[in-house]
């Protein structure tokens, strides 16, 4: 493989960091207790709210998304509390395991990793809990391991239909700023997000958007918390400060990424992702392959997981694409290892990047001996021809 040209990073996160963001980060460190920093904090906290669709506080952590998962749980729950989880994929499973390690009891609704959360199951499970012992419902909005997006408004309605007071916590690590999301309007209590996917930043920041109800719960929650505690952060933020040294350069990058999202407009950002996802699915089907997601209401805008025909190894195809065309694709996680590969089409991404990505996938399939119809790329281009 020649090192000329650029690498195609088409995994579903971390995503490509735009040059504008990289340049914004190439700046001197400033005093994190000085007036310039206070200005930066204020701008960022203001700019984040519309991205989450909230008027409530957003807490920023110098941590990966996993840290924000922990923050959501330890701020609101007490030892032995029950949480309702769904077996939608690898990330839902990791969050559930974390809940158990933290001393919570996790009820699991089984799933086949090809569907999102079924709202009817939410109502059934909660209606069967008249004593309200379930304290939170944990949902991964976009399952990055499967390319399936759960329908949050319907899940909210399902909780309400059961008349149940459980908190709704939603992981948007691979959907925020790429798939439509509205923290306030959809009645979400804690939204978990990360920097390195739709927000187009390098890894290293994560977020909690917090409803008034979740903040109330945090006043009596008894799981041990210190670094993750919302309260001291929200208080310090009022004066433009953090209770510890913040990740200054990632915050420079975040300010620039927020500016880019504002310039494009969030509805346009969401539509761009949908359109690229649609073109990708057209190519996959024309190749004669299967999209993992089974329900068209749940197709992901940020990535597509492709099922590889029996007798072929998805990881060999990925290795071929990397070796010959210098492109990284996502592998199958957990039980999907070797059976699927994942095409990331989120973040700083446009039509010709998608065309290049799908060309690489098509050549990789053919090189690996997968019988793929080479007009797959044409099917995608026909879609991209139209706005
Ligand atoms: C990437 C991802 C995570 C994990 O985030 P880290 O930054 O790797 O800790 C959690 N949930 C989802 C849905 C993800 O896509």
How would you describe this structure to a colleague?
The protein folds into two domains: about 10-15 and about 265-385, Aspartate Aminotransferase, domain 1 (Alpha-Beta Complex); about 20-260, Aspartate Aminotransferase, domain 2 (3-Layer(aba) Sandwich). The radius of gyration is 21 Å and the shape is globular. The longest helix has 22 residues, at about 265-285. It is built from 13 helices and 14 strands. With about 375 residues, it is an alpha/beta fold. Helix 4 (about 90-100) links the parallel strand 3 (about 80-85) and strand 4 (about 105-110). Pyridoxal-5'-phosphate binds next to helix 3.
Annotation keywords:
387 residues; alpha/beta; Aspartate Aminotransferase, domain 1; Aspartate Aminotransferase, domain 2; 2 domains; 7-stranded mixed β-sheet; 5-stranded mixed β-sheet; 13 helices; 16% strand; binds pyridoxal-5'-phosphate
In short:
With 387 residues, the chain is α/β, with parallel strands linked by helices. It is built from 13 helices and 14 strands.
Summarize the SSE layout with pairings.
Layout: E1 8-10, H1 19-25, H2 35-52, E2 58-61, H3 65-76, E3 82-86, H4 90-101, E4 105-109, H5 119-127, E5 134-140, E6 142-143, E7 148-149, H6 152-161, E8 167-171, E9 190-194, E10 206-210, H7 212-220, H8 230-238, H9 248-264, H10 266-287, E11 290-291, E12 303-307, H11 314-325, E13 327-331, E14 340-344, H12 351-367, H13 376-385
Parallel strand pairs: 1-13, 3-4, 3-5, 5-8, 8-9
Antiparallel strand pairs: 2-10, 6-7, 9-10, 11-12, 12-14, 13-14
Helix pairs in contact: 1-9, 2-9, 5-6, 10-12, 10-13, 11-12, 12-13
Bound molecules: pyridoxal-5'-phosphate.
């Amino acid at each position: 493989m020649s090192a000329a040209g650029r690498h195609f990073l088409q995994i579903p996160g971390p995503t490509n960091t735009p040059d504008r963001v990289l340049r914004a980060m190439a700046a001197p460190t400033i005093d994190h207790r000085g007036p310039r920093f206070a200005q930066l904090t204020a701008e960022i906290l203001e700019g984040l709210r519309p991205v989450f669709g909230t008027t409530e506080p957003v807490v920023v952590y110098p941590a990966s998304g996993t840290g924000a998962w922990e923050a959501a749980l330890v701020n609101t729950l007490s030892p032995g509390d029950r949480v309702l989880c769904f077996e939608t994929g690898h990330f839902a499973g990791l969050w559930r395991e974390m809940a158990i390690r933290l001393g919570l009891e996790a009820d699991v609704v089984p799933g086949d990793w090809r569907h999102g959360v079924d709202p009817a199951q939410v109502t059934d499970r909660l209606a069967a809990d008249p004593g309200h012992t379930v304290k939170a419902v944990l949902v991964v909005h976009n399952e990055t391991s499967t390319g399936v997006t759960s329908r949050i408004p319907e899940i909210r309605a399902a909780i309400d239909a059961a008349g149940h007071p459980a908190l709704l916590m939603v992981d948007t690590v691979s959907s925020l700023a790429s798939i439509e999301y509205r923290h306030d309007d959809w009645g979400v209590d804690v939204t978990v997000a990360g920097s390195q996917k739709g927000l187009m930043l390098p890894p290293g920041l994560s977020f909690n958007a917090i409803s008034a109800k979740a903040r109330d719960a945090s006043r009596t929650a008894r799981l041990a918390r210190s670094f993750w505690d919302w309260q001291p952060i929200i208080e310090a933020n009022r004066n433009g400060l953090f209770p510890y040294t913040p990740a200054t350069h990632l915050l420079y990058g975040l300010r620039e990424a927020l500016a880019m999202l504002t310039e494009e407009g969030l509805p346009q950002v969401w539509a761009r992702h949908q359109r690229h996802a649609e073109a990708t699915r057209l190519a996959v089907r024309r190749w004669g392959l299967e999209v993992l997601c089974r329900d068209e209401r749940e197709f992901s805008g940020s990535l597509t997981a492709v099922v590889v025909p029996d007798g072929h190894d998805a990881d060999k195809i990925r290795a071929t694409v990397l070796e010959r065309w210098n492109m990284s694709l996502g592998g199958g996680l957990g039980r999907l290892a070797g059976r699927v590969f994942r095409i990331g089409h989120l973040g700083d991404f446009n039509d010709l990047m998608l065309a290049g990505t799908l060309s690489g996938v098509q050549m990789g399939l053919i090189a690996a001996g997968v019988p793929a119809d080479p007009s797959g790329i044409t099917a995608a281009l026909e879609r991209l021809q139209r706005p």
